[in-house]
Design brief:
By secondary structure, the chain is of the alpha+beta class. The chain is built from 25 helices and 33 strands. It starts with a helix and ends in a 13-residue tail after the last helix.
């Protein structure tokens, strides 16, 4: 009896302890339940996610004659978020239907467009016609602008919000199969068996048990309300919040919140949250277009986005994806055959660099302009739709060209560093930075912009960094000189010869000390101290000769050159000799805008990024009109362009031709401490800058650092349908083009067929032929058969250059230590022509002839 009494007393004591424990637990649970009920209620009363502004690209314009196929158009519509007719759920942006030779587009209520449908018809891979909804023929039709990105929130988190109905079923199946198989079957949000197991392992100190305990609802509770440390208290609070969430929200709403919040990796300095952002980041797709293997990959990343990063660890990511696929087979969501087909699918990721598709430097500029124009710190929480100038395809081309070009530049830097290290240099290796800006020359639209080599490492935007412009400034000098021609003003060179400036005007390229201002002096030199002596203006720009260009600026007037530069948007210039060779600074974006005066018939167009701002429901809040102003007469613009076209075809920019870029183009290299290349076609301006952040000398010419990037980008650009229709530059009325003899720069005839084409203001072109340059004393027989020689001697016209052999085309670096005189290179001995060559006027082109321009 005594033992029984002791037993009952023990049981009673245990019961009391248990009851006390339960009461204490209930009290503690009740306290925290009430406390966090207020917290959860307050959080759920407001939007759980910031409705950040969305940044859209420019709409792509379709025109008859463009190279397109139905598949390409359909793919662009899918990227924009359109759904094919019959697909559920139906996109509010719009729908489309695709036939073998046509695509019919129907914008939805949330479309950028007016609700006008169109049918695009194709013949042999070309758009044959575009028909409106009322069967009217259209000259053009704009596709839905693509979403570039949304502006990140304060924590540099990016997400693209999805409703539950917008989440593909395959994503829901993939996530629940690997993270919470009983999610839709369970009445609450807690897996009690897993909780007990986790608690046991936690008490015995086995902290290696991870996963298995947290349901999707519990994971959501942790992400929204708790810190990430793994303690018993945090798990307890997670359970309290989970019960409240399960009580207040439907399963579909909880999954929607989870699908928008779950961390899925890092893209540069931004974190990727949610399946909408991850679909774009990893696959370049709208979430609605995710396939089975893509959905499985993203679901697999939930476990450990960094460890399973598919860019760094593709084999790990594939193994985890296949685990998800096997889990989906076990849950009956897919068949074994579907899993095997998906497991055999390669990753097919989009380029992983942060600036590949999202144009982060461009987006940062848009953010700055929005803050400046709206003057509202809360604008990014209003869900605005921001329409911009960006062309995503051209942006991709720019990103790729910069990446490839920098590999070659880095290789040069590394070779030079190793050489210096062998000779005792112990400093760090410095890799240069880069910027690329591409504009539509006729609208000012910033089509592509790269502001640096790696946005994740540095957000400094070099596209708007002020740097000395180097020789890409020189065309401004020549344009100012052509302005004097238009006014009929004669200029006088250092030899006292006066005349109207033309491309054949003789400039002195020789060591010179220039005096300016208050008896200040400036003594520049040419590359490797090589001077060419008297040369034509055409040759001076072709070979980027410093002293010749400064002498021209002196003849024109430094004030006149500086005034033109400021009208073109280069505001830092001062009227000094150094100005003529780009000693003053401008940004790559400003230089791209300055070059519109050449590419746009003399009209300056300010570069712009913002097109319009729309409210969440699509109402237009603001639209922006480009600012333009006439700066040059179209004739002056063309004459300067013709000189720059010669630079690309035969001068310091010839490397772009050597790289296989064949479209009509004009441009100019630049080398100071930095490397530049600025050039344009009939429909695209591009400026490339390469230099060091610490302003140290890059020691690589523009022709070798910037021009190859420009050429690669332009080759990619003209391969796109919207930029493939480049046209030759056409002289305006009042400009004549004549064939000139390369030896005399006078009109070429049958007696001197080694010629080139030159452009002149009407009335300023040479009137004498090369055959009469010095008074032809040959008889009729000699003239017919090309025998005998013209007498030599000085000419009375300003167009006659001194016979000298220029060096090969090379960029003249814009530095100015004391010059050393150099003897001009002597002309090579020219091969004599045979009888039949002289008879029929055939003379093979001598590629080493400096006058072969």
């Amino acid at each position: 009896m005594k033992s029984m009494s002791l037993k009952y007393k023990l049981m009673f004591a245990v019961g009391v302890i248990f009851a006390t424990g339960c009461l204490a637990f209930a009290c503690v649970f009740g306290y925290y339940y009430i406390k966090y009920q207020r917290i959860v209620d307050a959080r759920l009363e407001k939007p759980l996610f910031e409705n950040t502004a969305k940044i859209y690209a420019a709409p792509q314009e379709l025109r008859p004659g463009q190279d397109f196929t139905p598949d390409v158009i359909a793919n662009e519509l899918r990227k924009a978020g359109y759904t094919i007719v019959g697909q559920n759920p139906v996109s509010q942006l719009g729908t489309y239907s695709e036939g073998p030779n046509s695509v019919t587009i129907q914008p939805g209520p949330e479309s950028y467009h007016a609700p006008d449908s169109a049918t695009v018809s194709f013949t042999n891979g070309v758009i044959s016609q575009i028909t409106g909804g009322k069967n009217q023929l259209l000259a053009a039709y704009q596709l839905e602008p693509l979403l570039i990105t949304d502006l990140s929130d304060k924590n540099r988190t990016k997400r693209r919000l999805l409703t539950y109905n917008q989440i593909p079923k395959v994503v829901v199946q993939a996530v629940t199969s690997i993270e919470d198989r009983r999610y839709f079957k369970r009445s609450g949000g807690i897996d009690y068996y897993a909780i007990v197991a986790w608690g046991w392992h936690d008490m015995i100190g086995d902290r290696h048990m991870i996963g298995g305990a947290s349901t999707l609802t519990m994971q959501l509770a942790k992400e929204f309300f708790l810190t990430p440390e793994r303690t018993f208290k945090r798990k307890f609070l997670q359970l309290v919040i989970t019960i409240q969430l399960a009580h207040r929200l439907s399963k579909e709403k909880i999954f929607e919140l989870y699908a928008n919040e779950v961390p899925l990796g890092q893209r540069g300095s931004f974190s990727i949250n949610g399946f909408g952002e991850a679909a774009q980041a990893y696959f370049g797709e709208d979430a609605s277009q995710l396939t089975l293997p893509q959905a499985a990959l993203l679901a697999g990343l939930i476990q450990s986005p960094s460890w399973l990063n598919p860019y760094r660890h593709p084999h790990r990511a594939i193994r985890r994806r296949n685990v998800v696929l096997d889990a989906m087979v076990e849950t009956g969501d897919i068949t074994k055959q579907q899993a095997q087909e998906a497991e055999a699918t390669p990753l097919k990721l989009v380029p992983g660099a942060v600036n590949a598709g999202e144009a982060p430097y461009f987006v940062d500029m848009v953010r700055d302009q929005l803050a400046s124009r709206l003057g509202n710190n809360d604008y990014n929480s209003e869900g605005l739709r921001i329409y911009t100038s960006l062309d995503p395809q051209l942006q991709q081309a720019a990103t790729e060209a910069v990446a490839e070009g920098l590999k070659k530049v880095d290789a040069i830097v590394e070779r030079r560093y190793k050489w210096r290290a062998r000779h005792g240099y112990k400093g760090p290796i410095v890799y240069p930075q880069v910027a690329l800006v591409a504009l539509n020359p006729h609208t000012g639209q910033v089509l592509a912009l790269v502001g640096g080599r790696d946005y994740g490492k540095s957000q400094l935007d070099h596209a708007v960094a002020n740097r000395p412009t180097g020789s890409i400034f020189k065309p401004i000098v020549y344009a100012a000189a052509f302005n004097t021609s238009l006014a009929g003003v004669q200029i006088t060179n250092s030899d006292g010869l006066s005349g109207i400036f033309t491309q054949s005007t003789i400039l002195n390229d020789e060591p010179t000390t220039f005096t300016f201002g208050n008896n200040q002096t400036y003594s520049p030199h040419n590359f490797e101290n090589v001077f060419m002596g008297p040369v034509t203006a055409r040759t001076a720009l072709q070979h980027s000769l410093n002293n010749a260009t400064i002498s021209l600026a002196q003849m024109v007037g430094y004030d006149n050159v500086a005034a033109l530069a400021r009208e073109a948007g280069i505001m830092s210039v001062k009227p000094t000799p150094a100005m003529a060779i780009g000693a003053y600074g401008a940004t790559p974006l400003e230089m791209a805008g300055a070059y519109t005066i050449f590419a746009n018939d003399g009209v300056k167009i300010d570069p712009w990024l913002l097109a319009s701002i729309h409210s969440t429901n699509g109402d237009v809040m603001d639209e922006y009109t480009p600012v333009s102003s006439p700066v040059l007469d179209p004739r002056v613009a063309y004459l300067t362009t013709a000189l720059m076209e010669n630079v690309i075809n035969h001068g310091t920019g010839e490397v772009v031709r050597e790289m296989g870029f064949t479209a009509p183009a004009a441009g100019k290299t630049g080398t100071s401490h930095d490397a530049w290349f600025a050039g344009f076609t009939s429909n695209l301006i591009c400026v490339v800058w390469v230099g060091n952040d610490d302003y140290s000398d890059i020691n690589i010419e523009g022709a070798h650092a910037a021009a190859p990037i420009w050429a690669d980008f332009m080759k990619k650009a003209v391969a796109l349908p919207q930029y493939s229709d480049t046209k030759p530059f056409v002289p305006p009325q009042g400009v004549v083009e004549v064939d000139l003899d390369k030896n005399t720069n006078l009109l070429a005839d049958a007696a001197c067929p080694d010629d080139y084409t030159g452009a002149f203001l009407l009335g300023t072109q040479p009137m004498d032929s090369c055959d009469h340059a010095f008074g032809n004393q040959r008889n009729v027989f000699q003239k017919i058969f090309g025998l005998g020689r013209n007498p030599s001697g000085p000419t009375v016209t300003q167009s006659q250059p001194k016979a000298s052999q220029p060096p090969p085309a090379v960029e003249q670096q814009n530095t100015a230590p004391a010059p050393t005189a150099a003897t001009p290179a002597q002309p090579e001995q020219k091969k004599k022509r045979g009888f039949w060559s002289r008879l029929f006027g055939h003379h093979p082109k001598d590629e080493n002839n400096p006058q072969d321009q």
